[in-house]
Design a protein that fits this description.
This protein is α/β, with parallel strands linked by helices and 358 residues long. It contains 13 helices and twelve strands. The radius of gyration is 20 Å and the shape is globular. The chain binds nicotinamide-adenine-dinucleotide (NAD). It is an enzyme of class 4 (lyase).
Length: 358
């Protein structure tokens, strides 16, 4: 039983997964099997442009459902599995960590076991060529002081939030499945992404949409928390490169070389919006910035050193923070229907109609 030229993507209806699937199919004919549970963060309207494209096979389901995943792997026989599926929002992890352990830890474990089972049936040559790419975050490394050097791939793990702890746990499982069972895995640690199709609970889309609807632009604490920012399409390009040329068992940092405080992000966005979409009442959107009580355990600074990916695999981001942000703001301005869909929940109704509640 040979494997086929097909990728299996988990979480491909989420922000980064949907961008990846679309970018992949725009460049290659190789089909994609997309398994997504369609939680509040999964949105099929992000993939609407692929309707009728037979290279995209969507299945609603949970990565923890071993019999479903095993069945899908046997039927479609992908040459690689890319795991984007996760609970991904830090604030939600503080209020309800259970789903984070269920999907990020147990779900990744179950997925690894399903994949190991499938992989063990491939020929020796196919086993060597197979890849399990685990999409992780820089947040597993914890917080940096202002003068500390950026995280490299060998930085110790020091996760501080339930989200980052659950992602760290999943990274360890992935690593162990390589060292113990020989599964050819790749793990990536990427900084904060922004761009089209990001659910408006995350900082950048929240700020854009709140600004335009005259609401407050909330910043935690003093707004001086530092993050590195990467345009989502640059992340997708990095993942394609790691999939193609990364060495099994290795980890790769992905970042934009764009450290900004949250306050800088907000003011840059306001300046962009002031030009693209001036406030009816005049003045700058910056007047809407409001400081709110800080998040418990809020990491002060993340910074990522992505030089390994550049020197070994030749990847560099195409966008600067400013150019990527400009594209993002223009995208949100031009896609009001998508925004209405995710904010009104009407797509949920569509999903229930087409795929049921389960
Ligand atoms: P997202 O929350 O937008 O999307 C997650 C997707 O996973 C959703 O479509 C959801 O329905 C699906 N999902 C959740 N639980 C599932 C399950 N049990 N089975 C199948 N599907 C399930 O997240 P995102 O921002 O696109 O992030 C994707 C991955 O990248 C995550 O693993 C995240 O940790 C990682 N990451 C994100 C960022 C970022 O800035 N967004 C940065 C670095 C790494």
């Amino acid at each position: 039983k040979r494997y086929t030229n097909m990728l299996m993507i988990t979480g491909g209806a989420g922000f980064i997964g949907a961008n990846f699937v679309k970018d992949w199919l725009a460049q290659y004919d190789e089909p994609v099997l997309n398994l997504d549970k369609l939680t509040y963060a999964g949105n099929l309207s992000s993939l609407a442009a692929l309707q009728g494209d037979t290279r995209h096979v969507f299945v609603k389901g949970d990565i923890a459902d071993r019999s479903l995943v095993r069945q899908l792997l046997s039927r479609h026989r992908p040459r690689a599995v890319l795991n984007f599926a996760a609970e991904s929002h830090v604030d939600r992890s503080i209020h309800g960590p259970q789903a984070f352990v269920d999907t990020n830890v147990t779900g990744t474990f179950q997925l690894l076991e399903s994949v190991r089972d499938y992989w063990s049936e491939l020929s020796r040559q196919e086993q060597q060529a197979f890849r399990f790419l685990h999409v992780s975050t820089d947040e597993v490394f914890g917080s940096l002081y202002p003068t500390e050097p950026a995280f490299t791939e060998v930085h110790p793990y020091r996760p501080n939030s339930p989200y980052s702890a659950s992602k760290a746990a999943s990274d360890h499982l992935v690593r162990a499945w390589h060292h113990t069972y020989g599964l050819p895995v790749l793990t990536t640690h990427c900084s904060n992404n922004y761009g089209p199709y990001q659910f408006p609970e995350k900082l950048i889309p929240l700020m854009i949409l709140n600004a335009l609807s005259g609401k407050a632009l909330p910043l935690y604490g003093d707004g001086q928390q530092v993050r590195d920012w990467l345009y989502v399409k640059d992340h997708c390009a990095a993942l394609r490169r790691v999939l193609e040329a990364g060495s099994p068992g290795e980890t790769y940092n992905i970042g934009g070389c764009s450290e900004r405080t949250n306050l800088q992000v907000a003011t840059t966005l306001c300046t962009l919006l002031d030009t693209l979409c001036p406030r009816a009442e005049g003045g700058s959107y910056a007047a809407q910035i409001t400081f709110v009580k800080d998040r418990p355990g809020h990491d002060r600074r993340y910074a990522i050193d992505a030089s390994r990916l550049e020197s070994e695999l030749g990847w560099k981001p195409a966008e600067t923070f400013e150019s990527g942000l400009c594209k993002t703001v223009n995208w949100y301005l031009a896609h009001q229907a998508w925004v209405d869909d995710v904010t009104s929940g009407s797509y949920r109704h569509w999903v229930t109609q087409h795929y049921g509640e389960g």
